[in-house]
């Protein structure tokens, strides 16, 4: 039962769903109109989330990856490179098109995280699931205030889920969460 709940938690709060929710929320919060919000959300999702998801789905379907959420560290390298490329293109496009600064800074944080985690992945596996939850929670608290501190319960929940499902060690879950939160704070201080 615990493994089933852990798997469900990991799937519901997957990197794809967390990023999608965050991008849509920020687009609708920061844009000057409904049409602008839709435009920024579509550009962001189309350049960052969708390409990575489609490539992973294609590789899984053709037997080149075992699952959508890659557990083998060695299989993650190419996906990290794709994520870095998509994050860089997204950041450049949003910056060039003069997207709301919150979106630009968010993609700068995403790009920084992807680059750092790709480097770490050469030697060690860090939990992307806990990283994205922790980074998103940190960003939400920074942008919308301590009222959203209640979302911090999602961080240990995700860490537990990743550990319980035998996808990560406690150190990998904690490292992912702490690094992502730190990167978000540093990038937003710069912006």
Attribute tags:
191 residues; mainly alpha; globular
Name the structural class.
Answer: mainly alpha
Oligomer class: single chain
N-to-C series of helices and strands: HHHHHHHH
The overall pLDDT average reads 92
**Percent in strands:** under 5%
- Rg is 16 Å
Shape call: globular
In total, the number of strands is 0
**So how many helices?**
8
Helix content: over 70%
Spatial separation of the terminal alpha carbons: 44 Å
Query: Largest sheet, described in full?
Result: none
Low-confidence stretches: none
List the helices and strands and how they pair.
Elements: H1 2-12, H2 15-30, H3 34-61, H4 73-96, H5 101-121, H6 128-144, H7 154-164, H8 170-190
Helix pairs in contact: 1-7, 2-3, 2-6, 3-4, 4-5, 5-8, 6-7, 6-8, 7-8
Summarize the structure.
With 191 residues, this protein is mostly helical. 78% of the residues lie in helices and 0% in strands. The longest helix is centred in the first third of the chain and has 28 residues, at 34-61.
